[in-house]
Write a structure and sequence with these properties.
By secondary structure, this protein is mainly alpha-helical. It has one domain: Glycerol uptake facilitator protein (Up-down Bundle), CATH 1.20.1080.10. 66% of the residues lie in helices and 0% in strands. The chain crosses the membrane at residues 52-77, 89-114, 134-152, 211-231, 258-279. This is Aquaporin PIP1-3s.
Length: 288
């Protein structure tokens, strides 16, 4: 593994640094904490680096698999006569949380394991990655989600259209404001967990404690789904909502679709501000 990495560097494939992987220590041999420098706003040189494109491909494939497994699970639930004869809401929540755990674990070392435009947006606001990379990730995540939902529809075209295609909507009995609030708070929980689980200072301070970042991130997704599936079906991931809406492509999927972009982006922004200013107090630290 180390030899392959060295070979890539010698060939110039990784000339530009990759995003710090989720779940890896912030330090190598030196245990002292060093504040990672902020990523540049624009890094056009990334466009000539193979590591940039393989990271985007990893985001595409991870989001593809995420939609494939989770939308299939939702379709299985909706086809059942009762919740007791299927995995139930808890099973759907586990499918979402478990897939995030597995996929973040698998892709962390390549792309950082975002699999969610809201996560990418929050990390961009915290200067963890460049605008170039953030936009590329979001595009690849959305394309992967569309393809994942498309494969599910190919397996069960009739039931897919009849049962809602896994598209996020504000459920009866709740207002658009309820749905927006649920998406903001749910995404805040997720992105706040991402920041906390991958914080370089925490990893340095608690280096004696094994920390597997994908675990709390996946568990946060599971808990948020348990809480908000009855309200919106739980979006907290604009790519997931977009992929299902495009493939389902009926009016009800688009009526409230803005909620599943505005809510997650507001939640991610709040989490980034809270972590940087309140938890880390980075703007107030001396630069000396």
């Amino acid at each position: 593994m180390a030899e392959n990495k060295e070979e890539d560097v010698n060939l110039g494939a990784n000339k530009y640094r990759e995003t710090q992987p989720l779940g890896t220590a912030a330090q190598t041999e030196n245990k002292d904490y060093v504040e990672p420098p902020p990523a540049p706003l624009f890094e056009p040189g990334e466009l000539s680096s193979w590591s940039f494109y393989r990271a985007g491909i990893a985001e595409f494939m991870a989001t593809f698999l995420f939609l494939y497994i989770t939308i299939l699970t939702v379709m299985g639930l909706k086809r059942s006569d009762s919740l007791c004869s299927s995995v139930g809401i808890q099973g759907v929540a586990w499918a979402f949380g478990g897939m995030i755990f597995a996929l973040v674990y698998c892709t962390a070392g390549i792309s950082g394991g975002h699999i969610n435009p809201a996560v990418t947006f929050g990390l961009f606001l915290a200067r963890k990655l460049s605008l170039t990379r953030a936009v590329f990730y979001m595009v690849m995540q959305c394309l992967g989600a569309i393809c994942g939902a498309g494969v599910v529809k190919g397996f069960m075209k009739g039931p897919y259209q009849r049962l809602g295609g896994g598209a996020n909507v504000v459920n009866p009995g709740y207002t658009k404001g309820d749905g927006l609030g649920a998406e903001i708070i749910g995404t805040f929980v997720l992105v706040y967990t991402v920041f906390s689980a991958t914080d370089a200072k925490r990893n340095a301070r608690d280096s004696h404690v094994p920390i597997l970042a994908p675990l709390p991130i996946g568990f946060a997704v599971f808990l948020v789904h348990l809480a908000t599936i009855p309200i919106t079906g739980t979006g907290i991931n604009p790519a997931r909502s977009l992929g299902a809406a495009i493939i389902f492509n009926k009016k009800q999927a688009w009526d409230d679709h803005w909620i599943f972009w505005v809510g997650p982006f507001i939640g991610a922004a709040l989490a980034a501000v809270y972590h940087q200013i309140i938890i880390r107090a980075i703007p107030f630290k001396s630069k000396a």
